[in-house]
Design brief:
Bound molecules: zinc ion
Order of helices and strands: HHEEEEEHEEEHHEHHEEEEEEEE
Distance between the termini: 29 Å
Number of strands: 17
CATH class of the largest domain: Alpha Beta
CATH superfamily of the largest domain: Zn-dependent exopeptidases
Radius of gyration: 21 Å
Shape: globular
Low-confidence stretches: 3-122
Strand content: 15-25%
Number of domains: 3
Mean pLDDT: 75
CATH architecture of the largest domain: 3-Layer(aba) Sandwich
C-alpha cells in the first residue's frame, strides 16, 4: 500500500484534465530536449523482443473481470522548487525494519504530511519565523519559484541499457524506506502494510526479485531499486511494486496508477494498460479503480521532484498487486508469486515491444498549467470553503495540482503546505516545468 486515504475525483477535474492533456501535447511539440537518434536498436541476439506475453494460465477459480473504467488523472505539475542535493544513502540488501508485524494497515497520513515529503523543508534564505504576519497569519513573499535549479533532463535514447538494450527499473515498495534521504524524511515511517502475517515489504521484495530474474533472462538490463530512487534515474520503464492493505479487510483487487503530474501521460498510460492487461488476465484479479491521490502522487515519479524521482522522460507506474488484508487475495498472491511476477514482467515487455520509433515517441512536456495571484494579501484556505491559513502576495505564480469546487489546489513555499486559492482570486497562466 502507499497510503490509505481514498480520493474521489471530481467532475470538474475531467474538463481540467482534458485541458491539461492538450497543454501537455502542445508543450511536447515545443520541447527543446535534444533527441539522440543514433543509438542503435538492440540486435535480436541481445534480447528477445517477442517474448510470450503471458505463459501462465488464467486463474480458474475466480471469474475474470476486466477493468470497466480507466483511472482518471490530473496531468499537471507544480512549482519548480530548489532541490538540495543530498547524498544517496549507501544501500545494502536487506529488509527495511518494520515497527510492527501485527498491524493490518498503515494509518492514513495527512495530505500535508504526504506532500511535505516531496519538498525541501524550506526555500533557502528565509525561515518560516521570518515571514511577515497579516491578521496573525503568515504572508508568503513574492518568490521566483521557477528560478530554482532543476535536474537537467537526460538525452533521449531509443534504449537506456548499457549495451543498447532496454533498461527497466523495478522498485520493491518500502524496501529500505528508513534510508530515504533527508528531503523525503517524512516518508521514512511508511514501512508498508501487512495482512495474515504477510508483510508487504517482504512480499514485494520477493516478487520484485522474480520480475528482475525474468526480465534479465529475456536480455533486459534490470535495476532492482529500494525506496530511494537514484538522482535523475532514467530507464525505459519504471514499475513500483506494492501490495495493498485496508483496515476494512474486505476490499480486493489490484490497482495501477501513473503520475497525475506526468510529463508523458500518453506513454505512461500505455505502460499502465500493457501491465494491466497481462496482470488482470493472468491473476483473474479485479481492477480496483479506487486510486488514491497518494498513488497518483507517488514520490518516486512525482515530477515536482527530480532528485529522488525518475527523470521526466521515464515511463513510470505503480502497481498494487492485491490486498494482503483480503484472505482470498492474500492466499492467491502468496501461492502464485510466479504468476504475479511473470505477468508484471511480460506486461513491461508488451509495452516495450509496442513503443513507436524514438522520433515518434511522446516528448516530455516543458510547460504546465498555473495561476497568478490577482491581488495583494489574498487569503488561501486549508480546504475548499475552509479556514484561512496564509496570505499571498500579488503576482505570485503557482502550479495547479488540482481544482476542487471553486478553488485551485496549490503548494505553499516556506510553509510546505497544501492550500486552496479561490479561483476568483487568480488568473490562469502557463508555467515552465
Ligand atoms: Zn505499499
Amino acid at each position: 500500500m502507499v497510503f490509505s486515504s481514498k480520493f474521489k475525483l471530481f467532475p470538474r477535474l475531467v474538463s481540467f484534465t482534458l485541458a491539461c492533456i492538450l497543454l501537455s501535447l502542445l508543450a511536447g511539440c515545443a520541447d527543446q530536449e535534444t533527441a539522440t537518434t543514433t543509438v542503435p536498436q538492440p540486435s535480436p541476439a541481445a534480447f528477445k523482443p517477442d517474448a510470450p506475453v503471458s505463459p501462465v494460465a488464467p486463474r480458474a477459480a475466480t471469474p475474470t473481470e476486466p477493468p470497466t473504467s480507466a483511472p482518471a488523472f490530473l496531468p499537471t505539475a507544480t512549482p519548480v522548487l530548489p532541490t538540495p542535493v543530498v547524498p544517496v544513502p549507501t544501500a545494502t540488501p536487506g529488509h527495511a525494519p518494520v515497527n510492527s508485524t501485527t498491524t493490518t494497515a498503515t494509518p492514513a497520513e495527512s495530505q500535508d504530511q504526504a506532500l511535505a515529503g516531496y519538498y525541501p523543508p524550506t526555500l533557502p534564505g528565509l525561515k518560516v519565523s521570518d515571514l511577515p504576519l497579516v491578521n496573525g497569519l503568515p504572508k508568503i513573499p513574492l518568490t521566483n519559484l521557477s528560478a530554482a535549479s532543476v535536474v537537467p533532463a537526460p538525452a533521449r535514447k531509443a534504449n537506456y541499457g548499457p549495451n543498447g538494450q532496454p533498461k527497466i527499473g523495478i522498485q520493491a515498495g518500502h524496501w529500505m524506506i528508513d534510508q530515504l534521504p533527508a528531503p523525503l524524511a517524512s516518508l521514512r515511517t511508511q514501512t508498508g502494510g501487512s495482512g495474515g502475517g504477510v508483510r508487504e515489504v517482504d512480499y514485494v521484495l520477493d516478487v520484485a526479485r522474480r520480475v528482475q530474474a525474468i526480465l534479465q533472462a529475456q536480455g533486459y538490463q534490470v535495476d532492482l531499486l529500494p525506496a530511494t530512487v537514484p538522482a535523475g534515474y532514467t530507464a525505459d520503464s519504471f514499475v513500483a511494486i506494492h501490495a495493498d492493505a485496508s483496515t476494512a479487510g474486505s476490499p480486493s483487487g489490484y490497482k495501477l496508477a501513473r503520475s497525475r503530474f506526468s510529463p508523458i501521460p500518453v506513454t505512461d498510460d500505455a505502460l499502465l494498460y500493457a501491465v494491466s492487461d497481462v496482470y488482470g488476465a493472468a491473476t483473474g484479479f479485479r481492477w480496483d479503480d479506487n486510486i488514491t491521490r497518494n498513488m497518483s502522487g507517488y514520490y518516486a515519479f512525482n515530477s515536482r521532484r527530480r532528485v529522488y524521482a525518475v527523470s521526466k522522460g521515464t515511463p513510470a507506474i505503480i502497481i498494487e498487486t492485491g490486498y494482503l488484508t483480503n484472505a482470498n487475495d492474500r492466499d492467491y498472491l502468496v501461492a502464485h508469486k510466479d504468476v504475479v511476477a511473470d505477468s508484471i514482467a511480460h506486461g513491461v515487455i508488451k509495452f516495450i515491444n509496442a513503443r513507436p520509433p524514438l522520433d515518434q515517441r511522446e516528448k516530455p512536456s516543458s510547460t504546465t498549467p498555473g495561476v497568478v495571484v490577482s491581488q495583494d494579501t489574498t487569503p488561501v484556505f486549508d480546504q475548499p470553503g475552509g479556514k484561512p491559513i496564509a496570505y499571498l502576495t500579488k503576482d505570485q505564480r503557482f502550479e495547479v495540482y488540482e481544482i476542487r469546487d471553486d478553488y485551485y489546489g496549490i503548494f505553499l513555499p516556506y510553509l510546505n503546505k497544501t492550500a486552496y486559492l479561490r479561483r476568483a482570486d487568480a488568473t490562469t497562466v502557463t508555467l515552465p516545468r
